[in-house]
Amino acid sequence: MMRVTAQIFALLVAVTNFAGVAMAQAVTKPEEWQINLQPAATPMMRSVSDFHSFLLIIITLIVGLVLGLLLVIILRFNARANPTPSRTTHNTTLEVLWTVVPVLILVVIAIPSFRLLYSQRVLPQADMTVKVTGNKWYWSYEYPDHGGIAFDSNILSDQDAEARGEPRHLAVDNPVIVPVSKTVRIVVTASDVIHAWTVPSFGQKIDAVPGRLNEDWFAVESPGTYYGQCSELCGKDHAFMPIAVRAVPEAEFNAWVEKAKAAGVEEANRMLAAAAVAPAKLAHSADQGLSLRARH
User: Fold this and answer.
1) What are phi and psi of 270, to 5 degrees?
2) What are phi and psi of 163, to 5 degrees?
């Protein structure tokens, strides 16, 4: 009995460790057969998802009502069921209803819509700023608040993405690194043609226009890597302009900043990659130790 209890306990600890590592290394990207929005990584995306679900309920009710009315008309007012049709041409009550009810529905939709639009366009006090520049066909990033760190972000080849265990056509050589639970202001522009910086799990899509600065904001709630793509038809390599944003705890972000200043962004990214592998190895070793104890 004690051996069985120990095995169950070891299994629960292993599952907990695995869940913790999986959460620490969360990856948000399109999935096969996906029919819903990507999981929300920011409060803004959660609001977008809630509004989407709210509209889906309203649309479903409207479609159901219209379908029901069509069925009633087909069954009750065909030539066989109603050989002597009514010659009524006006019904004041009905005409008032089909004018007022749609107006009320639009008002109900407009209130949360305007509230969401306001929260998107009015930027809160930011903890840091990242400048995003779209180029043909890659992204450039600058950190003006952290010593002017700057780097380009290019798509990885299929072979490199597979070797790193990252998704094809979404992985990049240098992701954007941001701290978790901090308000990040992004300033977006372009050097040549119009691009669009889009990360679905952030609920974010903002145009990058040459000669113009657009701004937006996000605050990532959980550590992980979040993928997006350019969403503007910017040229022949439009499909090869992915975006990768990696959110890390603030202490790791500060360490990345210092490493990037001292040794360059590539070395700083290698340091983060090594730090991400270490907890997984530690959890695996702990699971093996608990399993051995349970057996004895």
Assistant:
1) -65, -40
2) -65, -35
Residue 43 CA to residue 235 CA, distance in Å, equals 33
Q: What is the phi/psi pair of residue 243, to 5°? A: -125, 135
The average pLDDT across 27-46 equals 89
Q: Are 216 and 206 spatial neighbours (Cβ–Cβ below 8 Å)?
A: yes
Average pLDDT over residues 217-238: 94
Residue 292, helix vs strand vs coil: helix
Report the chain's C-alpha Rg in angstroms: 27
Residue 178: Cβ-neighbour burial (10 angstroms; 0-12, 13-18, 19+): buried
Give me the count of residues in the chain: 296
SS3 225: strand
**From start to end of 231-280, where are the E strands?**
242-248
Q: How, if at all, do strands 128-135 and 214-218 pair?
A: unpaired
- The pTM of the full predicted model, rounded to 2 decimals, is 0.78
Segment 236-246 shows an average pLDDT of 95
49-64: per-residue pLDDT in tens? 999 999 999 999 999 9
Tell me: pLDDT of 118 over 60: yes
The dihedrals phi and psi of 137, each to the nearest 5 degrees, come to -130, 85
Instruction: Determine contact, residues 228/128, Cβ cutoff 8 Å.
Output: no
**pLDDT band with cut points at 50, 70 and 90 for residue 25:** low
| 243 close to 228: Cβ distance less than 8 angstroms | yes
pLDDT in tens, 171-182: 999 999 999 999
Look over the chain and give the mean of its residue pLDDT values, rounded to a whole number.
Answer: 85
Q: Is the dihedral of CA 243, 248, 250, 256 positive or negative?
A: negative
**Whole-angstrom distance, CA of residue 296 vs CA of residue 131:** 57
- pLDDT of residue 94 exceeding 50, the answer is yes
Which ranges of 221-264 would DSSP assign to H, the alpha helix?
250-263
Q: List phi, psi (to 5°) of 145.
A: -85, -5
Please identify which residue in the block is written with the tokens 């009514």. Answer: 86
